[in-house]
Write a structure and sequence with these properties.
166 residues, 4 helices, 9 strands, rod-shaped, alpha+beta, three-stranded mixed beta sheet
Length: 166
Amino acid sequence: MKKNMLKLGAFLMFAPVFLTSCASIFGKSSYPVSINTNPNGANLSITDKKGKEVYKGQSPATVTLKSGAGFFSKAEYQVKISANGYSEQIIPVTYKLNGWYFGNLLIGGFLGMLIVDPATGAMWKLDTPPISVTLNKPTASIEPTLQILDVNTVSADVKSRMVKIN
């Protein structure tokens, strides 16, 4: 009976080591992304790589985004920033391979390397720094204008293209 209890106790102590993985232990599977804009109050829309909107709001904001997008697939996001009277900007949010993922070779084993970290997304870490954007006014566009001219002051070329209105 005591032998079974010792075995059970040993199993419970070491099971977390063998059933988890390095990147899952030392890393995380979602990261906060800070977004600041000038002017404040700009509209924010974040879409994932499938085009699904995962966040809609206004700046400043801190949004927690998942690092994985499926088994062995890293997440990618597009942050669209817009405000009335300003040019729209789109900023990508990217992830890269987490160095702790290779710790599975020493600690987590192949279970962590082939199943746990790829399934949880912990094998990826945020590669994008905090987003700070100053929106620009759009470049000056040519607005249509109305000019009233005397027919006697225009060139012959312009007179040939005139249309008489009744």
